[in-house]
Amino acid sequence: MNDLPLHGRPVKPRVGLFVTCLVDLMRPSVGFAAVKLLEDAGCIVDAPVQTCCGQPAYNSGDRGTTRDLAMQVINTFHGYDYVVAPSGSCAGMIKAHYPELFEEDPNWRAKADVLAAKTYELTSFLVDVMKVTRVEAAFDGTVTYHDSCSGLRELKVRNQPRKLLASVEGLTLVEMKDSDVCCGFGGTFAVKYSDISGAIVDAKARNVEAAQAPTLLAGDLGCLLNMAGKLSRDGTRVQVRHVAEVLAGMTDDPPIGVAKAETVK
Amino acid sequence: MNVHSTSPEFKQNAARALNDSQLQKALGNVKQGFIDKRRMAADKLPEFEALRDSARDIKNHTLEHLDLYLEAYEEKVRSSGGHVHFARDAQEARDIILTICREASAKTVTKGKSMISEEIEINHHLEANGIRPIETDLGEYIIQLRGELPSHIIAPAVHLNATQVEEDFRRVHTHLDAKRDLSEPVQLLTEARAVLRERFLAADVGITGANFLVAETGTSIIVTNEGNGDLTQILPKTHIVLASLEKLVPTLEDASQLLRVLARSATGQEMSVYTTFSTGPRRRTDADGPENYHVVLIDNGRSAMLGTSFEEMLRCIRCGACMNRCPGYHAVGGDAYAWVSPCPLRGVRTASVRRVDQAGHLPNASTFCGRCESVCPVRIPLPKLMRHWREREFERHLTPATVRSGLHLWGFFAKRPALYRLATRVAMGALGFAGHRRGRFSWLPMAKGWTKYRDFPAPQGETFQARWKRERGGSSA
What we know:
Shape of chain B: globular
Order of helices and strands of chain A: EEEHHEHHEHHEHEHHEHHEHEHH
Strand content of chain A: 15-25%
CATH class of the largest domain in chain A: Alpha Beta
Distance between the termini of chain A: 49 Å
Largest sheet of chain B: 6 strands, parallel
Helix content of chain A: 40-55%
Oligomer: heterodimer
Low-confidence stretches of chain B: 1-6, 338-346
């Protein structure tokens, strides 16, 4: 921290980007959009070598593996002023659940508490911590926004993405019905209980279609892969993107589940 | 009558439910009706969130001092002329109830709505011993005619429509004119009312559940919207209250606080139509009431939950707000989840009362979306409890072998960042190349569950970490 603190935070905070395993593997452009947004907001961004927050193990009841991965994340990210993830689910894991993992280990519990306190979901970090009120981006069209469960209910991410989207030139946001209802992804749930998951995402897809917005946005790639996969399977032409791509003005890559060739024509 | 747990067959039940168009339509009604009404009721009451805190605290306090309040309650019931019986498990409860019914020479027993009576499967036991139990809550009555299990804790027949009920009434009420008109719901209601009125008058014993037991006064409280509970407990000579231990609250004041969140959370009403208090048998000066008053206090696994991570589940006041918001419940309904806890989070309790290997899918069939917790009037952290249950399953090696080995393999790589970075770089490169022409896969090996209902979007190819290293020369950390 070499800059003078302003309102309790460094002027140019060093942010460790927790890129999330899904963004790392499936859609790195979301990670680079997050980097741009953070740098535009005045942060120094670094992306240390990383794997996963441990949620798949956590939600499958494997506490041992979860703890190992949590310690790995704590060790990797303890030196940054803030840790930011383009995902409410992974940020929620670190913020709400890491401390619970070490209830019987005061030493690690203290470290987990410190990390939890400085970890944020991307849009809430920009709005709540960096006090960003507008982004320099343009997007020509109407979008609808799905509130992913963990971000909404664990981290209270709801107004922040909408506030930033409102500043995007040319963009109109229409709300779909039940935007706060789960899309049916639920990590391994989507595969383990595919019939139920399929029914839940079907209801979501119908609400997306009814909103009549050509673009669907959300803040979590898991939900986005699920909804994009369903919408394309059903033959709809709704384009699906992570909210960071639009906020960063980085929409040159084809939408999720669409080939490069398809967007050229 | 099929009253056995079908939870282990959950997946087949779920698939069947998804193809049942009538059920799907009925579930749509649950979704909108209950959710909107609860929201309106909560919005109208500025102190609603504070009341939820208070409700949680009352229940926590009672659970912490449960022994004390149980003794005080028992003492009050006895001094008002009633009897208290403690049942360690379902079998003991069934035996106690049967003995009381036999002492009363009972031929028929009317029953108010009671989830604990489903849990101990009392109807089956009474029938097997020549005593006819008659459900008097309209929904429960219909379910009983059909030999089904309640599909929702406060709206047991929510999965049915009027035509189905008409068919059942014509099949069972054969003493009535076969040509009668039953095309309007009110006609069904009138017929049920008339038939049940006879049953109320003929019953030898009335069995009710309890929403609350008040230690201060020895009172049991039930809430209903049909008044059937009153007729069940006032008309027969013997009234049996069935209640599990955690129904206790210290005072009438506490009970009234909880009543303020109960109906609002359940149906969006400020109060249920009937809130009935009963304390002991009829006194000499009373106009009516039973001659004998028995309370059967049932443990059935609950005391074993005290002091464990599942204790918080014992705060539950059975409002059903959680189910009404569960996307899994909306998709397949309560029949699939089956038994007395027709949704995944109630699975926590089912699982706690039953054995871990019998609960099977219930605590697993949830996305952890957390909508249940967000409306729980006593603030039970349901996703957390379901996760605890999964941990218990994992420790006991009950998690399916494919899941375990998948987790193990994934964990191996996730704990080795350098290897992980290399392996994912190769894998995503290959997958990205394979999918680059269409941008998605409609079929992938090992992911059939996914691709059955949706495409799998292709990865962009290069991983974030590879590109970051290439563009920014790696990490400084």
